[in-house]
Write a structure and sequence with these properties.
Strands 2-1-3 form a three-stranded parallel sheet. The chain has helices at 2-24, 32-38, 40-76, 83-137, 159-169, and strands at residues 26-30, 140-145, 155-157. The protein contains five helices and three strands. By secondary structure, it is mainly alpha-helical. The protein has one domain.
Length: 178
């Protein structure tokens, strides 16, 4: 009897919450992953990030190839150099390699930071304004990420409307990534 009473209270509470939600208006959802893969500004940003990565690789690949060649040359001189001289040259080579690796890591971190800033400073504020505008136009009382909604009886997906509006507001931008 006690279990039935507790179950009834939980069920009634859930039904009361659902009717309360419906009384306040329409629940709208947006699929953020779809926006990030189909929105022109996100595609534009991803293209620029890819180009910046290629530029970064192009900057460091010749240097890395040079180090590999120098290491091979040092290996061939094993029998010609004293152990001390060999160790000294190997240490110098490793130190230069580590400096190059540090610079590469710095540049990679800069690219990552600038990519994050592009999203947070440039795209996100525009996305927030577009989301708010589309939600208002569609009569949404609540707008949630589609992934966070398990069930909503009175929901409307506004993802495509958000993409269209966002694309009309900002589809290309020259991001300073690297």
């Amino acid at each position: 009897m006690k279990k039935f009473l507790i179950l009834s209270i939980v069920l009634l509470s859930a039904l009361g919450y659902q009717s309360e939600t419906l009384a306040f208006g329409k629940i709208c959802t947006v699929d953020v992953q779809v926006i990030e893969t189909q929105g022109k500004i996100f595609k534009n940003l991803l293209t620029q990030i890819e180009k910046a990565k290629q530029k970064l690789d192009g900057k460091y690949k010749p240097e890395l190839a040079k180090f590999a060649k120098q290491k091979e040359e040092l290996e061939t001189k094993k029998g010609l150099l004293s152990k001390t001289e060999l160790a000294k040259k190997a240490t110098e080579l490793n130190q230069r390699y580590q400096q190059l690796q540090l610079q590469f890591n710095k540049d990679s971190q800069k690219l990552s930071k600038n990519s994050t800033n592009a999203i947070n400073i440039i795209i996100k504020p525009k996305f927030d304004r577009v989301l708010k505008s589309v939600s208002k136009e569609q009569g949404c009382a609540t707008t949630m990420n589609h992934a966070a909604v398990l069930y909503a009886k009175n929901q409307s997906d506004i993802t495509s409307d958000v993409i269209i509006e966002l694309d009309s507001k900002i589809s290309k931008y020259n991001f300073d990534l690297f």
